[in-house]
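Please think about what follows:
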Amino acid sequence: MEKSGRPAKKRLFGLSLLLSILVLLLEALLALVVSVVYGLTQESPNAGGGSGMFIFLLPVLAVFGTVIAGALSVGLVLPTAWLGDVLGRRFGGREVWWWVPMVAGAVSLVVVGAVAALAGGAGAGPVALGWFLTTAALTVPALLWRSRRERIFKPVLLWGVAAIVLTAVLGGTGLATGVLKEYRPPALTSADLVGRWSDGQGGTVTLTADGRAAAVDLDDDLGGWGPEDDATDPDGPEGADTRCTGQGTWTYEPGASTWSQEVDITVDSCGFDAWNVGGTASRPTLYQYIGDPDSGDLYALTRTDGGP
């Protein structure tokens, strides 16, 4: 495009790179807000106490994210913008913007396909969604990379922040009004807990209405994160049996909310802490954390007898 008889001046590479990094960071923040809101609607264990650590890691994450955004800008955004211009001149005689999303779609298809293959394959739905989101995320910075507008950083930053804030407000409003259903563990009673629970690997515990518990081959090697360490000897021979069997008692504490419900199962040969309640009303679970709670690894028991 020409203006005043002279070709429009292209933005310097360094400024285009900074603009691309800014857009990718804004997109990452937007994706983070969406994932947090979506995560609140999905079944999950209670918080492992990692939110404070996340705040302390924010500066490190910001630096790491900037480096990744820079690498993606050079490795994906720049080639997409350049190839879009080349194809426009080759097939239309001039650079046109709509070649950019076409190239971004092709590049995204390769990227998403490679990720799906490395992950062992995925369904058509997740692949299609991943392709669409990746295409959109790549198209925006690529279009801005080739833009000739001056003073574009401020409006991009303002619109990006506005989109993030608006998404957060809409998500919070949806959760507060019930339009988006926030996940909460099912509210159980002692009667709901009576029955047989299985870990799906041969371990079971049977809870009776009179407060008795019978454990069979429960895995007691969970990393010793409670006041009672593993029931097994950490200095014992390698491959020692880490499962426990025995008789004992159980009690249920409803707590102040469904998140604080606890089931205390006491068996002499087992060293478990109180069990947390998870799952859904139709499929409740009892779970313990394996090792560090921040890891999210769970040892879960599921009802196997359909309830009392």
Summary: The chain has six helices and ten strands.
